[in-house]
Amino acid sequence: MDAPSHFVFGLERRNGQRRLMHSLREGHRAPRERLSEMRVMTGKTATATLILLSFLLLGVLYCYQNYRVFVSFELNDSRPKDRAADFLPLSDEFHLEAEHLQYKQPSILQGRTDVVTVTPWLAPVVWDGTFDPVLLDSLYRPRNISVAITVFAVGKYIRFLEDFLQTAEQHFFVGFNVHVYVFTDRPNELPRVHMAAGRQVTVRSVPSSQRWQEISAHRMELIQTLIEELNNQKDYIFCLDVDSRFHGRWGTESLGRLVAVIHPGYYRNRRSQLPYERRQESRAFLAPEDGDFYYCGGAFGGRLQEVHLMAKTCRLNFEEDARGGIEAAWQEESHLNRYLWFNKPSKVLSPEYLWQDFKSREPEIHLIRFSGVVKNYAEIRPNA
Ligand SMILES: CC(=O)N[C@H]1[C@@H](OP(=O)(O)OP(=O)(O)OC[C@H]2O[C@@H](n3ccc(=O)[nH]c3=O)[C@H](O)[C@@H]2O)O[C@H](CO)[C@H](O)[C@@H]1O
Ligand SMILES: [Mn+2]
User: Fold this and answer.
1) Could you tell me if 209 and 154 are in contact, meaning their C-beta atoms sit under 8 angstroms apart?
2) Catalytic residue among 189, 333, 362, 364
3) How far is Cα 296 from Cα 332, in angstroms, rounded to an integer?
4) Ligand 2 center–CA 315 separation, angstroms
5) Confidence at 20, pLDDT banded by 50, 70, 90
6) What pLDDT is recorded for position 43?
7) For residue 187, how far is its CA from the centre of ligand 1 (angstroms)?
8) Which atom of ligand 1 is nearest to the CA of 213?
9) How far apart are the C-alpha atoms of 126 and 347, rounded to whole Å?
């Protein structure tokens, strides 16, 4: 390989200078000296060229670096906008309202000590007493957020719909825009429930099925297609079981990018005992040493694009399992749990957000907000 040009040039330059000094001391300019001088001149030109080239190179590097920053910014920005933050951008009104709001001084020394309020990946776990509902509502109200709910009432499950809707009017995002999407095969049996201003119900017809497992799992596909049709016109979505009622506030404290609810039945269990799908042939498989919490299939939500990706993934994996002749232990709930192991929720709701009426209340549950009603499975399901 050739010697680096600056090294050759450096030698040339030093030699030339020595010769020039010598010829100046001699007081005359012999042809040899003139040649040396010319060499010095060439050296100077080369120095200038090198400096210019260096600047050019630095310029190119600078532009390249900026271009990369620009490109990566573009890449981030081209992801669904919803992924960016749990909060929507602040508006000016928010500042005004917050300035005039009186609320209890926050503390990092006092608060709930009987429960864990943050996951190891630093997602909040929402328990009663960990948030100020008035403050939170005042942060979100100026942004005029809209929340969609999906609820399925197929076959005899239509009987749960009236209570679900009525109690949602009393407790679910009261004072906010709420759009309930009811999926049913019995649209003419829809209960008449008075909805407050800014709240509405839309009914969508779906086919019935002979297997409750299919009705339950098929929700993922219908949630996926609904979100595609919504085209980001709503800010958040929650997907809830119909055989349940609201008993307490469920509001802005539950908002987040990807939100999951801890199942009330298993939060004292070791992870190896959680009812995840344990057969390796299933795409919902989780090993005994895997899994964080056991999350409910009956309540989850978040920003539209996050829930879309989760629903789509669960649906595709459920269908792939079906092609392989396997159905996960708890259908889409098993797939949801697998998804949430790899894609950690940004907010976790405590079992206050999905209790079960047949369970007695535990001391850490100060307030039951939403709870599954007791039902006669044999009587209401199409199959046992
Ligand atoms: C509280 C909770 O986390 N429940 C989950 C649990 O059982 P569940 O016993 O709660 O399941 P489920 O019978 O309530 O079925 C789930 C939902 O599917 C709909 N449905 C079901 C049957 C039917 O004939 N018609 C109908 O509309 C309805 O919206 C119901 O709420 O495990 C299921 C596994 O598949 C689901 O993940 C449920 O969400
Ligand atoms: Mn249920």
Assistant:
1) yes
2) 333
3) 10
4) 19
5) very low
6) 67
7) 19
8) 35
9) 8
Closest protein CA for atom 37 of ligand 1: 297
Residue in the block written with tokens 């190119």: 60
Distance of alpha carbon 202 from alpha carbon 368, whole angstroms = 27
375 Cβ inside 6 Å of ligand 1: no
Task: For residue 93, name the pLDDT band (cuts at 50, 70, 90).
Answer: low
Predicted ipTM?
0.98
To the query of whether residue 74 is one of the catalytic residues in this protein, the response is: no
Instruction: Give residue for tokens 């996951």.
Output: 119
Q: Residues 202, 180: contact at Cβ < 8 Å? A: yes
- What are the b/e assignments for 299-312, b being 16+ CB within 10 Å? bbbbbbbbbbbbbb
**What's the chain's length in residues?**
384
Atom 8 (ligand 1) nearest CA: 298
Q: Which of 48-57, 292-301, 315-324, 364-373 has the lowest mean pLDDT?
A: 48-57
Strand 295-303 and strand 258-262: the pairing is antiparallel
